[in-house]
Amino acid sequence: MGQTGPVFTTENECQDCYKCVRHCHCKAIRIVNGKASVIPEACVSCGECVKVCPAHAKKIRSDLGRLRFLLEGKNRVIASLAPSWVGYFPNTNLDRLARALKRIGFEGISETALGAEALSAETCAWLRKTKRPLVISTACPAAVDYIRKYMPQYTGALLPFYSPVISHCRLLRKQLGNEIKIAFFGPCAAKKNESDQNQGLLDLALTFSDLAQLLEENGLQLNDSDCDSIDGDFALESDRELLIGKAEEGRFYSVEGGMNDTLRNGNDHIRYTAVSGLDNLFRILHQWNGNGGDRTIFLEALACRGGCVNGPDMPARASSLDVLFQTDRISSAACSEGKISNVPLDRICKEDPLAEWIPSEEEMERALARVGKYGRSDELNCGACGYNTCRDFARALLQNKAEEAMCHNYLRKNYERTSNALIKYIPAAVVIVNNELQITECNRIFADLAGDSVVFDSLGNLDGISIQIYLPEYAELFTSVLENGGEIEKYNQKYQNRILNLSVFTIARGKFAGAVIQDVTRKEFQREQAAAKAREVIQKNVLTVQKVARLFGEHIAETEIMLHEIAKSCETENGETDER
Fold it and tell me: What's the half-sphere exposure (Cβ side, CA atoms, 13 Å) at 48?
């Protein structure tokens, strides 16, 4: 249909954590350059990734734009409200919700629980006749799609009826006419798939968050008097009922086991049970041999643990005991058997299996080798990548759903190899200590400096030995940077018969500190030798200059005496000539 899937990723908010992969039972996530994206054809829209994403990068598609278009149109728009509204809007009632939706532009509001009651009534009658050993409910679209895609062998066990929301749409259209538009509000992402697949029945599926945004946009708060009813009357100005129908026991559908409560009718050949969470659904159905017992097992299957009250668009408090009691107070504890809807709810579920690709053992070995796993002993199956086993991860690599960097063990080994190589070949002593001042890593140059190269050569490290044993004079430098952070540099420090330059720095404050130590003894000796030679040259130069100066001074003095004598001689001769 050219639309974005019900669940998608805002890539610039994705934090490279793979938490969605770990929690996605279907592994419908592809990692590209560290960013997670949803694989639409593999996703059943359970919304688990939306709930667990720490960066809130996983989103449920908003159809508010399409809803505004409907509200501006000529057709009457009816709101179908899921029974889990009690958990999302705990301090209000249907009266206020109806008035608020009327002010937004809805013609009326009706409870999806009415469709649930119609479904339960049909199911009760059908179960009395069935001889199947296993029947699986179809109330949860995510659970239904999971079975159709991933466990198609159980598709024939699905109840042959529509879900509560589609049943409700059929009831509303019979009562109000097929020209109406219906918008569902609930906690579910998978309902959007139902809407996309049943456009003639359900026009839009929105979340409670969308409803809250609508209320905010229109300046409405559910505790405002504007949303109160007038004398408890739900009638509009045209006398058409604003609140269409009144649900009873169907309101308990939002809680795990709620559907079963509406089916218990003394039928002793049916055993009712409930399972929630796709992983639990897989666990209970996996490898069933098809043998039944004396009774039919009716399995209420839900994708969200605890039921719809714990859906992807619900706050954490919505699955609390308080909400359970509140839901109980507005729900009757009754069986739906005998309620007549006169609306066909029959549905045939068809298998929709994903194409299964099984790589060869050679391909698996090559994929495992990409992350440094060359034998079974290398396959740790730690699950850090999000996959249950290393082989599952290798299969994902081959399907271009995963990247090597997702393997933390592989990254750690690569880091260690790189780190060790760098430390090994740095032309200085390197040491790393923990918060107890114990050495966690060092190189051979440090071992030589510490005078413990024999131990280093035999063990390959000095791990666990206190730095105070080797550098007692400087242990307080490590303590200081561990406590305060930063870096401390010391130059020309005398250590035994050596001269050292030290740089002590924080790696992880309060956890690890490192130091780079340069032995500059030889350089200092060479510097002193150069300085001594320079001083010797200078001294010689000074002596030479002094000698030159002395000689030059003597020459000047002799010349001066000679010139004085010549001058005096000349003066005498001139005097005698004058006298004559």
Answer: 26
Q: In what order do the strands lie in the sheet with 498-508?
A: 439-442, 429-434, 512-519, 498-508, 487-495
Which residue is associated with the tokens 């740095």?
426
**Helix, strand counts (H, E) of the chain:** 21, 17
Interior/surface letters 175-206, b for 16+ CB within 10 angstroms, e for the rest = ebeeebbbbbbbbbbbbbbbbbebeebbbbbb
Burial of 290 (0-12, 13-18, 19+ CB in 10 A): exposed
The number of CA neighbours under 13 Å toward the Cβ of 275 is 19
Give me the chain's average pLDDT, please. Answer: 87
CB atoms under 10 Å from CB of 546, counted, come to 10
Structure confidence by residue, pLDDT tens digits, 320-371? 999 999 999 999 999 999 888 888 899 989 999 998 889 999 999 999 999 9
Look up residue 534 and give its two tokens: 């320079």
Tens of pLDDT, residues 189-243: 999 999 999 988 999 999 999 999 999 999 988 865 545 543 333 333 443 467 8
The fraction of the chain above a pLDDT of 90, given in percent, is 65
38 vs 487: CA distance, rounded Å: 45
Reported as a pLDDT band with limits 50, 70 and 90, residue 478 is very high
Residue ranges in 130-190 assigned as alpha helix (H)? 141-150, 164-176
HEC readout, 422-474: HHHHCCCEEEEEECCCEEEEECHHHHHHHCCHHHHHHHCCCCCCEHHHHCHHH
- The 8 Å CB, 24+ separation contacts for 228-233 are 228/95, 228/96, 228/99, 229/95, 229/96, 229/98, 229/99, 232/95
Distance of CA 29 to CAs 25, 150, 297, 344, Å?
Answer: 10, 15, 33, 37
**Would you state the structure tokens that stand for residue 122, as one six-digit string?**
């049909």
Residue 108 forms beta bridges with which residues?
Answer: 78
Contacts of 424 (CB under 8 A, 6+ apart): 443, 444
User: What does the angle CA 339 – CA 340 – CA 344 come to, to the nearest 5 degrees?
Assistant: 125
Question: Which secondary-structure segment (H or E) carries 492?
Answer: strand 487-495
Instruction: Name the pTM for this structure.
Output: 0.75
pLDDT digits (tens, 9 = 90+) for 370-429: 998 999 988 999 988 999 999 999 999 999 999 998 998 888 777 777 777 788 888 899
CA proximity to 448, closest of 490, 498, 374: 498
Paired residues of 204 in beta bridges: 183
Measured CA to CA, the distance from residue 399 to residue 387 in angstroms comes to: 14
What percent of the residues of the chain are helix, what percent strand, and what percent coil, each to the nearest 5? 45, 15, 35
Task: Flag the least confident range among 72-86, 384-398, 527-541.
Answer: 527-541
DSSP calls for 279-316: HHHHHHHTT--S---SSEEEEEEESSTTSGGG-TTS-G
Would you say 163 and 119 are in contact if contact means Cβ atoms under 8 Å apart? yes
Residue 311, CA atoms < 13 Å, CB-side half-sphere: 30
